[in-house]
Amino acid sequence: MLSLKFEHKSQNRTNIYYLTVNIY
Q: Cα–Cα distance between 15 and 24 in angstroms, integer?
């Protein structure tokens, strides 16, 4: 469960990063 949670958080962070790059 912890691993899944960590993985999900990492994916979310990546999505935010991509969104930021798109905005810029």
A: 14
Kindly report the backbone phi and psi dihedral angles of residue 17, in degrees, each rounded to the nearest multiple of 5, phi listed first. -60, -45
DSSP string, 1-24: -HHHHHHHHHHHHHHHHHHHHHH-
Residues constituting the chain:
24
Taking only the tens of pLDDT, the chain with its 24 residues reads 566 565 666 676 777 777 677 666
What pTM, to 2 d.p., does this model score? 0.30
